[in-house]
Amino acid sequence: MKKIVVLSVLVVMAAFAANTGRDEERRGSSHGAAVGGGHIPAHGPARAQASRPAQGSAAARDQRPAAESRVAVDERNHPKAPHVHANNDQWVGHDSGANDPHYRVDRAWAHGRFTGGFGPQHVFVLGGGNRERFWFGNYYWDIAPYDYGIVGDWNWGGDQIVIYEDPDHDGWYLAYNPRFGTYAHVEYLGN
């Protein structure tokens, strides 16, 4: 009889431990990773400090993909791409301000505003597509051409994505990938 009780207690403890691990995973616990590793930031980036006015020429509005990364490695083993630190939710690389010509659009939110939910309570799974057009659920998006190099390793048919509002660039949102801890500017194309 004692063996049955001990065995029952061990089974209950193992089930509790397994469930606790799943809860941490759902909440975005990074399990020690400095960037990515499943971590989901509790909030989006703060508004960047004021930047100088953008140039009005067509060249200033160049939407071609960046030839190389625009973010210097801030710490060892961190990506050369915009990312979020798992230990303090610091958004690295979102500092160009509202006047960045790479994220200027003729008509902000031309396809309407996204209403599917923002932040860590709304984790979506990519359903297909590529950087020019991807989707999850019945929501369609594209990546800003200037950010194409950031999303080269994303799994368009299975990665998790969290959408945050962009406080600096009208018409854009930020799609955060918890697997890599990186994010890119995305435009909502409707549903």
Can you characterise this structure?
With 191 residues, this protein is of the alpha+beta class. The chain has one domain. It is built from one helix and nine strands; from the N terminus they run H-E-E-E-E-E-E-E-E-E. Strands 3-7-8-9-6-5-4 form a seven-stranded antiparallel β-sheet, with no helix packed on it. Strands 1-2 form a two-stranded antiparallel sheet. Strand 7 and strand 8 form a beta hairpin. It is globular, with a radius of gyration of 20 Å. About 10% of the residues have low confidence.
Q: How are the SSEs placed, and which strands pair?
A:
Layout: H1 2-27, E1 83-84, E2 91-92, E3 123-125, E4 128-130, E5 133-136, E6 139-143, E7 160-165, E8 173-177, E9 182-190
Antiparallel strand pairs: 1-2, 3-7, 4-5, 5-6, 6-9, 7-8, 8-9
Write a short abstract of this structure.
The protein is α+β, with helices and mostly antiparallel strands. Helix content is 14%, strand content 20%. A hairpin with a 6-residue loop joins strand 1 and strand 2 (91-92).
